[in-house]
Each structure stands twice: as C-alpha cells, then as structure tokens.
Amino acid sequence: MPKVSIRRGKRSDAEAFLQLLTALAEFEKLVPPDGAARRRLAEDVFVKRRLGLFVASSENGVVGYALYYYTYSSFLARPTLYLEDIFVMEGRRGAGIGASLFRRCLQEAISEGCGRMEWAVLTWNKKAIGFYEKIGARRQKDWYVYRLGSDQFAKTAEVLRGPAAH
Prior knowledge:
Elements: E1 5-8, H1 14-27, H2 35-46, E2 52-58, E3 61-73, E4 78-88, H3 97-111, E5 116-119, H4 126-134, H5 153-160
C-alpha cells in the first residue's frame, strides 16, 4: 500500500476533498452538499480560511481528510479545536490513516494553545466510538446537543419577539 502523508489542504485538493465529503455523507446516510454548498465550503476553507483542513495524501491522491475550526471556552479562557469531520475512504481504512489525521489535529490544538478538543460521533458508529474511548476521550454525559437549522431562523426569531422578549 502506498505511503500516506498528512499535510494541510491546499486549493488544488478542493475537488478530492469535496468527493470525500460526498462519500462521508453517503456513509452517514445524509444528503451530500449541493453545488452551491460545495462552492461555499471550498471558499470557506481555501479563501476565507474559516475552517482548517488536513488531508491524507498518497501517490494515488487524497485518501482522507480532517476538517476543523475553533470555538472558545469562556471558563478555560482558551480556544477549543472542534473536529467537524474526519474521514478516510473505504478502501484505505484500518491502516492508521484516521489515527494519523486525528494526531495531526491534536498537534494543531497543542500548537494553538487550545484548552480542549471536541467532536461529535454518531451513536451507531461503533468503530469510531471504540477508537475515541481507546485513546482516552470521554463522552459527555451532562450535555445535550441542540440545533437550529437556517430554515428555522425566521420562525425562531418571531417566537423570540413575543411578549416575553419586550
């Protein structure tokens, strides 16, 4: 199997990264981003630098990626590296590529002075859960994740404008 190196993603990786993102959507049984979303994502990663990207690259091209950004912990008064996605193409799994991508994110968190690193994992992804628990990550038991989609913003803003908000 060809040697794999982990490096920062560059603009020329955009198409390979977006193809892997589509494969991740299929793996997670989700609808992949449409053309407009793909363009926004590429701009946010490669132009606006809102997100960081590491890629696992071999002589055969990009075979995996880790996409991350920073949040902030007010109690630690330090940034948090939030790992949005980590994905390795199916034929290359089991060779330590995902662990190498994760390790590179960990190195980034250390170099940026982060107080922690966080991510979410689907409850059915037992291999990922096993990996995270094996390396000592702790699942948060006291927190629920809530989400508002952009399709809910207007309705939510209206609710918040109600009598209690005046």
